[in-house]
């Protein structure tokens, strides 16, 4: 495998994580043909290199947190002074967007229009 091909796969790995925001490490390993421990090591390396930032939980998930979201959390802590873990967790739900960028957000009007169009639309929407 050449250097360019290796860099391409690494970029694909990073993009995969960033586009999904939250990934299950085992699923990520399966997607890229790696062992789960190799995925964990790769994520740690990418974090050290500044290419990824986020949180790995004890349930086998990695949550990508963008630089801007990190700054928002830091600013909140700085503004508030002392912050409890529970308070920070509640506020983090507002400061960190866990929806994948590729997911389409539908308004209530869009959903109502889909309902009015009938089952055909529902079948198409559920197929996506």
Short synopsis of the structure:
With 128 residues, the protein is mainly α.
Apparent shape: elongated
How many extended strands?
3
Strand order of the largest sheet: 1-3-2
Helices and strands, in order, run as HEHHEEHHHH
Largest sheet descriptor: 3 strands, antiparallel
Mean pLDDT: 78
Subcellular location: Endoplasmic reticulum membrane
Main location: endoplasmic reticulum
GO molecular function, one term: ubiquitin-like protein ligase binding
InterPro entries: DDRGK_dom-contain, DDRGK_domain-containing, WH-like_DNA-bd_sf, WH_DNA-bd_sf
Description:
This protein is mainly alpha-helical and 128 residues long. It has three domains: 1-64, Arc Repressor Mutant, subunit A; 66-97, no CATH class; 102-128, no CATH class. It is 65% helix and 8% strand. The chain has seven helices and three strands. It has helices at 3-20, 25-32, 36-48, 67-80, 85-95, 108-117, 119-127, and strands spanning 22-24, 54-56, 61-64. It has a three-stranded antiparallel β-sheet. The radius of gyration is 19 Å and the shape is elongated. Residues 103-107 and 110-128 have low confidence and may be disordered.
Give the helix/strand layout:
Elements: H1 3-20, E1 22-24, H2 25-32, H3 36-48, E2 54-56, E3 61-64, H4 67-80, H5 85-95, H6 108-117, H7 119-127
Antiparallel strand pairs: 1-3, 2-3
Helix pairs in contact: 2-3, 4-5
Keywords: Endoplasmic reticulum, Membrane, Transmembrane, Transmembrane helix, Ubl conjugation pathway
Family: Belongs to the DDRGK1 family.
Membrane topology: Single-pass membrane protein
């Amino acid at each position: 495998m050449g250097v360019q091909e290796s860099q391409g796969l690494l970029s694909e790995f990073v993009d995969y994580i960033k586009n999904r925001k939250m990934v299950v490490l085992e699923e990520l390993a399966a997607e890229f043909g790696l062992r789960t421990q190799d995925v964990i090591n790769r994520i740690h390396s990418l974090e050290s290199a500044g290419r990824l930032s986020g949180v790995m939980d004890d349930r086998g998930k990695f949550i990508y947190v963008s630089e801007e979201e990190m700054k928002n959390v830091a600013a909140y802590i700085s503004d508030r002074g002392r912050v409890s873990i529970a308070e920070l967790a509640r506020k983090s739900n507002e400061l960190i967007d866990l929806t994948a960028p590729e997911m389409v957000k539908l308004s209530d009007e869009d959903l109502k229009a889909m309902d009015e169009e009938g089952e055909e639309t529902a079948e198409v929407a559920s197929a996506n």
